[in-house]
Amino acid sequence: MKKPRIISSIVLIAAVGAAGYFGWQRFHGADQSTAANNAQKAARNAVRVTIAPVQKSDFPVYLTGLGTVQGFNTVLVRTRVDGQIDKIAFKEGQLVNQGDLLVEIDPRPYQATVDQAKAKKAQDEANLANANLDLQRFTKLGEFATRQQTDTQRSTVAQLTAQIAADDAAIFNAQTQLDYTAVKSPIPGVAGLRQVDIGNIVNASTQTGIVTIAQIEPIAVIFTAPEEQLPYINEAQASQPLKVIAITTDGKKPLAEGTLSVINNQVDTTSGTIRLKAVFANKNHALWPGQSVSTRLLVKTLKDATVVPDDAIQHGTDGLYAYAVSQDNKAELRKVKVSQSIDGRSVVDTGLSPGEQVITAGQYKVQPGTVVSTAVASSDPAQQPKVKQE
Question: Which stretches make up the Multidrug resistance protein MdtA-like barrel-sandwich hybrid domain (predicted)?
């Protein structure tokens, strides 16, 4: 009787244990399943955003404006003598050097004047030689020649000597006029469109020129800056020439890099601006006279500034803000203060710290505390223009 009781007790205990185990397994399995489902649901509900790091770097501060390119020197070449054009020795758009022949005017009338002046000098030299011989004869005669005769002869010699000096001046003037028949470039530069053709008669009195020469190496850009920036420009320019970058008017292509050379001596009271002049070496001829460009004047460089992409900065009713991403991938709203912004980057004075991550895309889906799924931006924020001067 005892053996069946023992077996029954063992079976009962095993049944109770099995029931308890299966109940415990089912209860905790349900909890784990719920937690896993909640995690999957949270992952599915996470907002996908793009992030970028808050960086600590030097930040250049530029004054931007619009400018016009001008030849460093520009000359309208005119004739200084009258005559017919026999030869045009340049091509339109050609680079010319200082002293290169541009136009040749018929030189024959001026050559004849030179020859006449030289012949007159030869005649006067012969008369002077004869007068000197007569003076020597009168001197040798001594008391046999009257004093009046001797003095008169000395005067004749002096007059002929002065006449030869006048002949030299006449020859020089005639030769100068002859030289003017070869019209040469007064400066190095680019020749523009010619305004006269071969065979035309040109006159020194007319205002119409022959051609315009514009010097493009170096070249200048005239631009303006607000008058309130003048003290900062003067202060920075006093230490060293400020860097100026010329860019296409669409802001996409840097053209050249130069230095600020002149600050105008007065402010334009009608516009409240000051005119500035920058000089560029322009070896690659990227700048051309008359061209409109955007300008950037480097006033100073902020050291170790907190820099973020412009896309991270949002505008709200209470001012500027940005979303930072916490360690647990939740969005945190930060009110920020921005002092400078250029080329896709902004300097944040307060609200963010270097090393943090900020949301640059997808903010419209985000609220404070929203769980986010992050993707790093595909490219770094645009850097300031870098120009290699050729």
Answer: 73-213
Crossing angle of helices 108-141/147-179, nearest 10°? 160
Task: Supply the range of the domain harboring residue 200.
Answer: 74-212
Query: Does 294 share its domain with 368?
Result: no
Alpha helices in the chain (DSSP H): 2-45, 108-141, 147-179, 230-239
Do 312 and 292 share a structural domain? no
Distances from the Cα of 243 to the Cαs of 204, 224, 296, in angstroms? 44, 15, 8
Say how many C-beta atoms besides its own lie within 10 A of residue 268's C-beta: 12
* pLDDT tens sequence across 222-270: 999 999 999 989 988 988 899 999 999 988 899 999 999 999 999 999 9
The gap from C-alpha 271 to its chain's centroid, in whole angstroms, comes to: 23
Same-domain pairing of 106 and 189: yes
Beta carbons of 95 and 190 less than 8 angstroms apart: yes
Residues 6+ apart with CB under 8 A from 151: none
Closest CA to 120 of 130, 108, 112: 112
Judge if the upstream peptide bond of residue 218 is cis by omega within 30 degrees of 0.
Answer: yes
Contact yes or no for 57/286 (Cβ under 8 A): no
